[in-house]
Amino acid sequence: MKWITPCALMALLGASLAHSPQFGALLIPFYLLAWKRYSPRTILLTGIIFIALLFFVLTTIEKSSLHTALTGNETELHLRIAEPLKTNGLTAQVQATSLNGEQLQITFILSPEIKLRELSTLSPTFCKWKGTLKAPSPARNPYAFNYQSYLKQQNIHWIYQIKDLDAAEQCYEISLTVIEKLQFIRQTGIERIDGIFPEKLAPLAEALIFGSRESMDEDLLAAYQKIGVIHLLAISGMHVGMMTAIFWWLLLRIGFTREKVRLILFTGLPLYALLTGASPPVVRAVSMVLIVLLFSFFTKRITLMQALSASFIIQLSINPMSLLQVGFQLSYAVSFTILLCVPSILTGSSKVLSILKVSAVSQIGALPILLYHFHELSIVSFLVNVVYIPIFTAFLLPVIFFLYLLSFAAPQFASFVLLWVEDAVIALDIVTLHLAAFPFASIVVGQPSMVMIFIYVCVTLYLFYRIEISLSIKPFIFLILLISLDWLSSRFNPTGTVLFIDVGQGDSILIDLPWGQGTYLIDTGGAVQFENTTFSVGKDIVWPVLKGKGITSVDKIILTHGDWDHIGGTADLADYVKISEVWISPNAHEKESVEELLQDLHNRSIGVVEKKAPLSWETGESYFTLVYPFDEVYEGNNDSLVLWASIGGLTWFFAGDLEEAGELELLEHYSLNANVLKVGHHGSKSSTAEEFLRELDPDYAIISAGVKNRYNHPHPEVVNRLAAHRVKVFGTHTHGAIEYRFRGKKGTFKWILPYDEE
Q1: What are phi and psi of 430, to 5 degrees?
Q2: What is the pLDDT of residues 443-452, one digit of tens each?
Q3: For the chain, domain boundaries
Q4: Residues 276-291: tens digit of each pLDDT
Q5: Considering only the top CATH level, what class is 496-529+536-751?
Q6: Phi, then psi, of 372 in degrees rounded to 5
Q7: What is the pTM of this model?
Q8: CA–CA separation, 470 vs 345, rounded Å?
Q9: Which end of the chain has fewer CB atoms surrounding its CB within 10 Å, N or C?
């Protein structure tokens, strides 16, 4: 069985190259080390090269099969809904199968009066529905989650939106498969936890027993991730191993023979994987145990590394697209590094030191993946894991699982004990939030370039190679220096950027000057907050962009005026970013929304200053002038803070929501030209007057507006006026985020979405 691990490595190479030659190239140092380690003979080498070609072909075929037979114009569809619905505020989501076998993502638009029992009647069913097909939204900003790509990996190409729940026709009962029945059993179990467990304990119990984190508080989840113990809230190999060990011990004590115990586990573990959501770590752990059990039936032995390799080959054979899942990547990367290094590092170690070493090895093994996807590294995780792993494995997991089972036989007694467990969990949550609030709990380095990822792979592999020979501190020091260099490069970058973030119907413009000369944010976007939703423009749109660029502090936030679509993300953004000061228009605090924001900023000790024209400052090769407003009477749009700037070889005019009256008043005081105009008021008819446009004479215009917004911005008259002046127009509603990147006096525009002007 020695051949199985080299075959797994070549399967990884073949699938990676089929997905992206770039990702395949990242693995080159990995294969050089593997060649040195395994030194395959010619016959074996031929075989494993064939494996790489085989998985390249399998993955290519799988990718080519990801297509849709629907046109997007269909309004009536027969749908088989055979899984529980997931509700989120005034919507409910579920995946369904159309009559031609195509998978769709279904969104039900719910009225406030809808009852949960009414939703339960929608599944399982086979009905004819009336609705609207729309394509999933791609990522509209850099570093944002790409929902379109995520669904496409599951061969889902359309979202079918249903507004009328009474529109179902020709409904029939359906028979469920075993897997579908288990999904409903899982949902019933989650609902039972909601009904029996205390409020603060229920979300954790759902995560540990059924692998569902949907009910967990987002701030708490973020805290667990920041301190590097988020893996404890997912059912992983540790959970599966513990459950297997507990049942093995119990069944033997009851009187079952080892052969029967193996058979019970062999049939029960796949069911357990399905009941817990079949996430990549669970499937990996369960399949490894099953492989070991299978070999034990034939009195043969297989190493854990070989079982891991076999598990990898099987999963990749069944679904080559799983390689793109972050959970899949992390699960196998961490397991591989632990199995590779643990024999060398645990010799003669105490339990505490062993946990520290395993935690360190796991973190290092996952480092390139974590930095690429999440752009930050937990500093305290090594120490925190020493405490948290025993708490979860020796106390919370077994106690919660036992009390859940006990609730069926003695619900009152179980409920009484659960109150004590809840107190312990509340205390743990408080500690977790305090640890996450520690200034150096984690460091944000930004998303590394592919070259930097390649260097990370080389360094981590060299470190593991040295560990096998002898444990030395030098490779660790080199890795720390590399992380420090990466961190410094994001803060002292020779490339500057002006980024118009797509915040929907609103404004948010990032100006990040080269060499750390200054970072400014003009407005922070904003959106109407609906009940039962945790979405926030500051947290969910602006912060991921800043985080991906490695930005954790902003020198100035310039809030042009008091409308919510310009200031709404500020407070939430302050939870993640250090803000030196905030600029507002004179007397903007007269607006209620601004007054509330100022109180929030005051509580955070963030300085707020009122500014008016004229005001100039210079930093590096960039020059800024505040050219409007002139008075201290706040009038809304026509008291927007308006900025003229010279950045990256171009001159810029950031108009806020300035309207025609303000534009003409400004022309009475200044004779201005600008290469780039940020069009005022999202392209509204009330802005960008002919006289103003003639004076400014821009080459480019940027319009920040939402897709299909209810104001119909930008107005056709404004677009035609810009076209008449031969101005090249970009819009966040058509192009997504728009970025100007520059070095010195030269730069280029680029945008996120492809756009056909015709």
Answers
A1: -60, -45
A2: 999 999 999 9
A3: 4-64, 76-175, 325-379+445-491, 496-529+536-751
A4: 888 888 899 999 999 9
A5: alpha beta
A6: -70, -40
A7: 0.90
A8: 9
A9: C
